[in-house]
Design goal:
mainly alpha
């Protein structure tokens, strides 16, 4: 097999897989992932012997979630619904107490408002497709946080183990695609991972990032063995390279920014803590430089991504959706245009010949590519305020939890801050595609808060 072109990084990886059609990355990743899976499976078997059926099903669904997310949109949505049904089904007598949660109360209030917006919209039937089932996302995050925190270390270890396994499988597919598209990759903006998903970066910054933060926290909390350090470092390197080669500039920025916050937002105690922080910075920066220097095609892809994906730049593909979203929100201040109606409303104006005079654009976009702009445009100013209150409450809880641990465990605060940071191209606020990953991270962060705030656990 001829060595792939496109820089020494591609050539090196291509030679490493020569003779096997570049399928070795997948086989290697699956082999390593299988080790993590078997270790989690053995742990699950030992735990199941002392559990009732409710806890057994809870642990099982935690193991399924990261693997289901590899397969597209439908399986993770099924896993999401099963998580809700298992959690509330075996706790039906506690439902009134569970809905005393401030988080759920705020989520339900926001849900009721977007239902009202759907009713008031020009296309209620279309809008209800997203607004009616939206409540499943905060319910899923709430259930996930309980399942992870109630079984404490057992549930968390199994979940993290399968997150690691799933991340390695995703990376294996990404590496294979990276190698097989070497000659024509110069103008490709992103890779696709398992089953041709258009958002592989979201898997890595969800399950991969959760795994890395959990491993780093364990390393920070106390002494760890040499084998653990080697495995954690290897996984950190593989995941980082996997994120970089996707060519998704916003997910790359999200990944790097979150890890930098992990090292910054914590107390420094002596030279050891400072050494860990400096070492983390240097490893991350070195990996980024090596990957870009090793493959000019990837460098060009990220440069193109920076020019065409950063929405505040006039040259960006997302600048027009942003300006359209702002104009649409100005025209529909109270109720917005209704969830999922962004594109449909725009097309109706175009058909009526009033698009230019109303929204000051000539073409229609699917959505504004910003979480807050979409909520503003589709549910009005009241909807944006209600969602901001929900985000603010989570941020308040995360700060409170971090203070309880004296900032030694800062995972919740940095994840909530990074997720709800306003300047990003995340959208589809009411749909399924990216919300599964978004609310999985929220659920994991909520679980960390529950473990820290045991005295007020029932109110979270």
């Amino acid at each position: 097999m001829a060595a792939p072109s496109g820089g020494w990084l591609r050539r090196s990886l291509g030679q490493a897989t020569e003779g096997d059609g570049a399928t070795n990355p997948i086989r290697g990743a699956i082999a390593i992932a299988f080790v993590f899976y078997m270790r989690a499976d053995l742990l699950m078997a030992s735990i199941f012997r002392s559990m009732d059926i409710g806890n057994t099903l809870s642990i099982t669904i935690l193991a399924i979630i990261p693997l289901a997310a590899l397969t597209g949109n439908a399986p993770p949505d099924i896993a999401l619904v099963l998580t809700i049904l298992i959690f509330f089904g075996f706790r039906w007598r506690q439902v009134p107490v569970l809905f005393g949660s401030r988080f759920l109360q705020l989520a339900v209030i926001f849900w009721i408002w977007i239902l009202i917006c759907s009713i008031m919209s020009k296309f209620p039937g279309h809008s209800f497709q997203d607004s009616l089932p939206w409540i499943r996302f905060p319910l899923y995050a709430f259930a996930l946080s309980h399942l992870l925190s109630q079984q404490r270390s057992h549930a968390t270890h199994i979940f993290i183990g399968l997150c690691v396994a799933g991340t390695l499988i995703e990376i294996g597919f990404l590496f294979r695609e990276y190698l097989n598209t070497a000659s024509e990759a110069r103008n490709v903006v992103r890779l696709y991972g398992t089953f041709g998903k258009p958002i592989p970066g979201w898997y890595l910054v969800c399950f991969g990032l959760i795994s890395i933060l959990a491993l780093l926290q364990k390393f920070w909390d106390g002494p760890t063995g040499l084998i653990f350090r080697f495995c954690a470092l290897t996984f950190f390197i593989l995941t980082s390279v996997g994120v970089f080669i996707t060519g998704e500039v916003m997910n790359t920025a999200f990944y790097i920014g979150t890890l930098l916050l992990f090292f910054i937002v914590r107390p420094f105690k002596g030279y050891k803590s400072l050494g860990i922080v400096v070492g983390g910075f240097l490893i991350l920066l070195t990996l980024f430089i090596i990957v870009l220097w090793g493959d000019p095609a990837l460098y060009n892809r990220l440069v193109i991504g920076a020019m065409k994906r950063l929405p505040w730049m006039a040259s960006s593909d997302y600048n027009l959706p942003w300006t359209t979203g702002i104009a649409m929100a100005i025209e529909n201040v109270i109720f917005g245009v209704g969830p999922k109606n962004f594109n449909l409303y725009c097309l109706s104006l175009k058909e009526a010949g009033t698009l230019v005079t109303t929204l000051h654009v000539t073409e229609c976009q699917w959505h504004p590519h910003n979480l807050y702009l979409q909520i503003l445009a589709e549910s009005g100013v009241p909807g944006l305020i209600l969602f901001a209150i929900l985000a603010g409450y989570l941020f308040h809880l995360a700060i409170k939890a971090s203070r309880t641990s004296e900032w030694r465990d800062n995972i919740a605060i940095i994840l909530i801050f990074a997720l709800f940071f306003p300047i990003q191209t995340y959208s589809q606020a009411f749909g399924q595609a990216k919300n599964f990953f978004f609310w999985t991270v929220v659920g994991f962060a909520l679980a960390r808060m529950r473990l820290a705030l045991t005295s007020s656990n029932s109110k979270i």
